Amino acid sequence: MNIYEALESVQFEKREYFKWKHDIRYQQERGQKSEERFLAYVQRRTLNSFYQWEKTPEYKHLLMLLLEWRSTQDFEQIYEVVSKKAKDGDDKAVKLFLSLQKEINTNAKAVKALFENVDDEKEEEDDLEV
User: Which residues of 116-129 are buried (b: 16+ CB within 10 A; e: fewer)?
Assistant: First the structure.
């Protein structure tokens, strides 16, 4: 489950607050709303209820998904930098590149197994007779 899928199950105002606070909107060409514009959009007078919500397990779960998503993006950027330096012959970068490659292969196997399980479940559902 990614952050956007998880946000679909959250109440509208909370979902919009989370996207506003962490600036994870799909339409990035529009500028970030001011606090006043955001409050008008969700028809609230203060952010107090949102601050209270930030202390809940639901919010913390969403935050962990967001951080996981961002770390994946960071990993991609780091990989590009290390790959370039390794190709240029930097010894430390080569060692780090090989380490990253092992990590990627491990993660890729886990993801592949996950998708195979999802495909198997879909096939089992398709075989059901009504």
Answer: eeeeeeeeeeeeee
How many domains would you assign to the chain?
1
Q: Does pLDDT of 126 surpass 60?
A: no
- Using alpha carbons only, what angle is made at residue 99 by residues 96 and 105, rounded to the nearest 5 degrees? 140
Both tokens of residue 35?
């606090």
Domain that holds residue 64: 3-126
2 near 65, Cβ under 8 Å? yes
For the range 44-49, what are the long-range contacts, defined as Cβ-Cβ under 8 Å and sequence gap of 24 or more? 44/13, 47/17
* DSSP secondary structure of 110-127: HHHHHHHHHHHHHHHHHT
Cβ proximity of 6 and 61 under 8 Å: yes
pTM (2 d.p.)? 0.70
